[in-house]
Amino acid sequence: MSTVLYLPFDEALTDTRPTDATGNLFDLAPPPGFQLPSVVSSLTGRGREFGSQYALIGRERKPNATRLTRDLTVRILLTYDLEAGADGDVGTLLSRGTGESAAERVL
Has this prediction a pTM greater than 0.85? Predict the structure, then answer.
């Protein structure tokens, strides 16, 4: 098994854009209308706090570098504020594509 995308989110400063440790993506940035998530203390050291106004998007350095044609495993360590999500809208954790493609995958 090989890793095609690894985002540790261990930046010390909020203004530092997260980087894919495998080098397959350009540094992540907030999409239009969103802000860069703040750096916070997490279970493993540092992490990012996402919310309705905070998101990140990454472009591939080489087209389809992260597109897998077989099974994949996604590992995410996260905490979830049940009070904040009481309306049942948990949002998107991970997606490939931006909603304009038949190949889009959303988790």
Answer: no
